[in-house]
Specification:
This protein has 780 residues and is of the alpha/beta class. 31% of the residues lie in helices and 17% in strands. It has 20 helices and 29 strands. The strands form nine sheets. Strands 13-14-17-21-22-23-24-25 form an eight-stranded parallel β-barrel. Strand 11 and strand 12 form a beta hairpin. Helix 2 runs parallel beside helix 4 and helix 6 crosses helix 12. It starts with a strand and ends in a 17-residue tail after the last strand.
Length: 780
C-alpha cells in the first residue's frame, strides 16, 4: 500500500466511528416560533414483494402548542443521514407480509397546525394515497387514531396538516424509490455472488437455557445480568447506529473509500494530536494532505479527483481490486469434516507456499480425501511467521507472504467450485504487541483498542488484549468479521483462544473442574462474552448458512446454545480434551493399562445439545516440542521401516493399527463434526518448526534457532501418495472413513452424551421426534 496515515504517534490501520447524530446540537429553534405544531413519527418503510408500492407506517400524529421546543429530527441533514443509512442497509424480510421492510431510527415531521378537523377526520379514515412522479402506484399509510387527533387538534388546523404531511411523505417516497432501486442492484450483486442475507432477530428473554439445564438456576443472577448487558448493547447499537447490520459495515466508512468525485480516508485515533496521509502519490510530504479530527476522534482527509477525472492516488497505488467470484458458496454440510490447513507450509518443498499453489495442488487433494470443509490458518497479516498467524498486525489485510488478495479470493472461489466449505481461523482474542506495524500504541496511547496497564497485556503470549466494552472496538471487530465474509466469501470462522477472552484470568494457572461456579462469577469478562454473542448474532442473522466454531478449553456452559435462548451462540466447540487424552495414554500408559471405560467417557463427555468438533490431533500437537500421534506410536522407525518391500517391526505394526483405530473411534464417538490437521491423515513424520534464528530471552536464557530453515515447515504429501510406503495405507484408511460418513451418515447421525449411572445413550435427531432422554422411543 502506497498510502499510509502519518500521525504524531505513527502510521495506521482501519476502524470506523459513527456517533449519535452531530446535527442534533445544531438544530436550534427558528426565530419565528410556530404557535402550534404537529409531529408525525415515521418508523418503518415497507416495500411490497412486487416492488410496486411503498407503505410508510407512522406511529402517531399529535399536537403541541409549545413555543420553545422543536423536534431535532426535523433537521434536513439528519433526514439525509437516515436516507443514507437506508441506502447502505440491505432490506429485511417481513415474515408476516412477505415484503421487504427497512426499519428507520424514527424521525419526525413538524408542521404548522391549521385547517379543518372535519377534513382531517375524513382523511385519516383510510389510506392517504397520491401519485408519485417516480413510479405509478404508491400508497402512504399513516397509522393514527382519529379520536385522538380530533380531541387534540383545533378546528382550523387539520387541512393544512394533511396536505403538508402528504407533501413531506411524497418527498420521502421518492427518496425511498431511489433506495429501492439501489437495493435491487445490491440484491442482484448478492445473488450473483452467492451470499445470503437474512434478518438479525431481535433479542428475546434469554431464559430458555434454564429449561435445558436446571443446574444453571443457581447462577441465574449472573446469566440474566449477562443477557441484560447483551440486550443493552444491542439496543444502543439499534438506537445510534441503525442496527448490527449497519454497525458491522465500518469498512465502508473507514480506511480508503472511493466515490465518483474522489477518495476519502478515515481513521479513528482519538489520542493522536496530528495526522496526515502520505504516500508516493504526494511524494511522502506530511504537509500535503493533512487530516482533520472531529469530536469523536475520527481523522479524515478527502482527495478530489485530478482535472482529467483520474483518482488522486494512481492506479499503481490502489489498495482494493475488484475480484468477481464465479461460484456460489456450498450449502452448510450436515456432517462437518474439516481439513485444517496452513497455506504457507503446505508445499512439499522447503519454502513459503502461495495461495495459487494451494488452490491448484492442495484443494483437489482435500476434495479427493473426502473432507467437505477446509479451515485456513494464518490468513490475517502477521509480521512473525513463526507465530502460526496468531500475532496479528493488520486485521483487515491478507497475509502478504502467500500472495495477493485476489489470489486468496481465487483460492476460495475454487474451493466453492469443488463444493468445499471454507472456514477462517480468526484471531480476536488478542493482537500483536508490535508498535511499528500493529495496533499497539496506534494513537500514542496504550488504551486505544486495548485495556490499559496489566489488564491489557497477556504475559504468556506477549500480546495486547482488547477492551471489548469499547464502542469502537466492537465496531472494529464486528466490521472485521463482516469484511472477511463480504469481501472474501468465507463461510464461517473458528474463533481462536476465546478462553482467554471470557475470563479475566485468561485460563492461565487455572484448572477447570466443571463446577459451574468457575464459569459464572467475578472472573468472567462479561464484555467479552457480550461481544461473542453480538458476533454470533451478526453472522447467523445475515448469513443463514454460516458456521462458527469456538476454541475453548474451559467447557463454558451455554457456549453453543443460540443467543436468543441466553447462550453465546456458537454452532460448535472444539472437543479439546480428546487429543489430550490420547497423548496422555501414549506417553504415560502401557497398552494393558488403557481403560476403555475412561476412554469412552472422555469421548462422550460433552454437554447435551451443544455440538462439538472432535479431533485426535490438530496443529497444536504437531508443533516443535510436541509429537504427533504417529511419532508417539512409531518414533524413529518412521524413518526407515515404512517401505512395503522391506521388513516391518512390531512397533510399526502396532503403530499403524492404533493410528487407524484412534482416529476411527474419535470420529465415531467424539462429536458432531471432525477435524484433521493437514498431513496427519497419513501419519506425517516429525514436527513443525518454523524458520528461526538464535534468540536470547529477557531472562538471559539462550534459545538456539534452526538457521532459518524451512525443512520442517512443510508437508510431505509425497509420502502419503507413494503406494510403496505404509504412509499410503494410513491415508487410504482416513479417506475411507470420510467416504463412509459421506455416503451413509453413520458417525454424526446422533448426538451422544453420558447419562447418569454411566449409561451411554444416543439421542434421536429425527425431525418428527419431540421427546428427550429415556422417554424417546428412538434411543439406540
Amino acid at each position: 500500500m502506497a498510502g499510509t496515515m502519518h500521525a504524531a504517534s505513527r502510521s495506521a490501520t482501519v476502524s470506523c466511528a459513527m456517533a449519535p447524530p452531530a446535527c442534533l446540537a445544531s438544530c436550534a429553534p427558528p426565530a419565528a416560533v410556530l404557535q402550534s405544531t404537529t409531529t408525525t413519527t415515521i418508523n418503518r418503510i415497507c416495500l411490497s414483494a412486487a416492488a410496486t408500492s411503498i407503505s410508510i407506517t407512522g406511529s402517531s400524529i399529535s399536537s403541541s402548542s409549545s413555543s420553545s421546543s422543536r423536534s431535532p429530527w426535523l433537521c434536513p441533514q439528519l433526514v439525509d443521514s437516515q436516507v443514507s443509512l437506508l441506502r447502505s442497509s440491505l432490506p429485511r424480510v417481513n415474515r408476516e407480509k412477505n415484503s421487504h421492510c427497512i426499519d428507520i431510527i424514527s424521525f419526525n415531521y413538524v408542521r404548522q397546525t391549521s385547517g379543518s378537523s372535519a377534513n382531517l377526520q375524513e382523511d385519516v379514515q383510510g389510506d392517504a394515497s397520491f401519485e408519485s412522479p417516480a413510479f405509478s402506484t404508491t400508497s402512504v399509510v399513516m397509522d393514527t387514531s382519529k379520536d385522538r387527533l380530533a380531541s387534540s387538534l383545533s378546528e382550523n388546523s387539520t387541512k393544512a396538516i394533511s396536505q403538508n404531511v402528504e407533501d413531506e411523505a411524497s418527498d420521502v417516497v421518492q427518496q425511498v424509490q431511489a433506495i429501492r432501486e439501489e437495493n435491487a442492484t445490491l440484491r442482484g450483486d448478492i445473488s450473483q455472488s452467492g451470499c445470503e442475507t437474512n434478518i438479525i432477530p431481535p433479542p428475546e428473554d434469554g431464559l430458555r437455557i434454564f429449561e435445558i439445564d436446571s443446574h444453571l438456576k443457581p447462577y441465574k443472577e449472573h446469566l440474566v445480568y449477562r443477557y441484560k448487558e447483551y440486550k443493552k448493547k444491542r439496543n444502543l447499537i439499534e438506537e445510534y447506529e441503525g442496527g448490527l447490520e449497519a454497525f458491522s459495515k465500518g469498512f465502508e466508512k473507514f480506511g480508503f473509500n472511493r466515490s465518483s468525485v474522489g477518495i476519502t480516508y478515515r481513521e479513528w485515533a482519538p489520542g493522536a494530536k496530528w495526522a496526515s496521509l502520505i504516500g508516493d502519490f504526494n511524494n511522502w510530504n506530511p504537509n500535503a494532505d493533512v487530516m482533520k479530527k472531529d469530536k469523536f476522534g475520527v481523522w479524515e482527509v478527502f482527495l478530489p479527483n485530478q482535472a482529467d477525472g483520474s483518482p488522486a492516488i494512481p492506479h499503481g497505488s490502489r489498495v482494493k481490486e475488484k475480484y468477481k467470484f464465479q461460484h456460489k458458496s456450498p450449502r452448510r454440510p450436515d456432517s462437518l469434516r474439516i481439513y485444517e490447513a496452513h497455506v504457507g507450509m503446505s508445499s512439499t518443498e522447503p519454502k513459503v507456499n502461495s495461495y495459487v499453489e494451494f488452490r491448484d495442488d492442495v484443494l483437489p487433494r482435500i476434495k479427493r480425501l473426502g473432507y467437505n470443509a477446509v479451515q485456513l490458518m494464518a490468513i490475517q497479516e502477521h509480521a512473525y511467521y513463526g507465530s502460526f498467524g496468531y500475532h496479528v498486525t493488520n486485521f483487515f489485510a491478507v497475509s502478504s507472504r502467500c500472495g495477493t488478495p485476489d489470489d486468496l479470493k481465487s483460492l476460495i472461489d475454487r474451493a466453492h467450485e469443488l463444493g468445499l466449505f471454507v472456514l477462517m481461523d480468526v484471531v480476536h482474542s488478542h493482537a500483536s504487541n508490535n508498535v511499528l506495524d500493529g495496533l499497539n500504541m496506534f494513537d500514542g496511547t496504550d488504551s486505544h483498542y486495548f485495556h490499559s496497564g496489566a489488564r491489557g497485556y497477556h504475559w504468556m503470549w506477549d500480546s495486547r488484549l482488547f477492551d471489548y466494552g469499547s464502542w469502537e472496538v466492537l465496531r472494529f471487530l464486528l466490521s472485521n468479521l463482516r469484511w472477511w465474509v463480504e469481501e472474501y466469501h468465507f463461510d464461517g470462522f473458528r474463533f481462536d483462544g476465546i478462553t482467554s477472552m471470557m475470563y479475566t484470568h485468561h485460563g492461565l494457572q487455572m484448572t477447570f473442574t466443571g463446577s459451574y461456579g468457575e464459569y459464572f462469577g467475578l472472573a468472567t469478562d462479561v464484555d467479552a462474552v457480550v461481544y461473542l454473542m453480538l458476533a454470533n448474532d451478526l453472522l447467523h442473522g445475515l448469513y443463514s448458512q454460516h458456521v462458527t466454531v469456538a476454541e475453548d478449553v474451559s467447557g463454558m456452559p451455554t457456549l453453543c446454545r443460540p443467543v436468543h435462548e441466553g447462550g453465546i451462540g456458537f454452532d460448535y466447540r472444539l472437543q479439546m480434551a480428546i487429543a489430550d487424552k490420547w497423548i496422555e495414554l501414549l506417553s504415560k500408559k502401557k497398552d494393558e493399562e488403557w481403560d476403555m471405560g475412561n476412554i469412552i467417557f472422555t469421548l462422550t463427555n460433552r454437554r447435551w445439545s451443544e455440538k462439538c468438533i472432535a479431533y485426535a490431533e490438530s496443529h497444536d500437537q504437531a508443533l516443535v516440542g510436541d509429537k504427533t500421534l504417529a511419532f508417539w506410536l512409531m518414533d524413529k522407525d518412521m524413518y526407515d521401516k515404512m517401505a512395503l518391500d522391506g521388513p516391518s517391526t512390531p512397533r510399526v505394526d502396532r503403530g499403524i493399527a492404533l493410528h487407524k483405530m484412534i482416529r476411527l473411534i474419535t470420529m465415531a464417538l467424539g462429536g458432531e463434526g471432525y477435524l484433521n490437521f493437514m498431513g496427519n491423515e497419513f501419519g506425517h513424520p516429525e514436527w513443525i518448526d518454523f524458520p528461526r534464528g538464535d534468540q536470547v530471552l529477557p531472562n538471559g536464557k539462550f534459545v538456539p534457532g534452526n538457521g532459518g530453515s524451512y525443512d520442517k515447515c512443510r508437508r510431505r504429501f509425497d509420502l502419503g501418495d507413494a503406494e510403496f510406503l505404509r504412509y499410503h495405507e494410513l491415508q487410504e484408511f482416513d479417506c475411507a472413513m470420510q467416504q463412509l460418513e459421506e455416503k451413509h451418515k453413520v458417525f454424526f447421525s446422533s448426538e451422544c452424551c453420558l447419562m447418569p449411572h454411566s449409561k451411554l445413550l444416543f439421542w434421536c435427531k429425527g425431525a418428527s421426534c419431540d421427546q428427550q432422554g429415556f422417554e424417546c422411543s428412538h434411543l439406540i
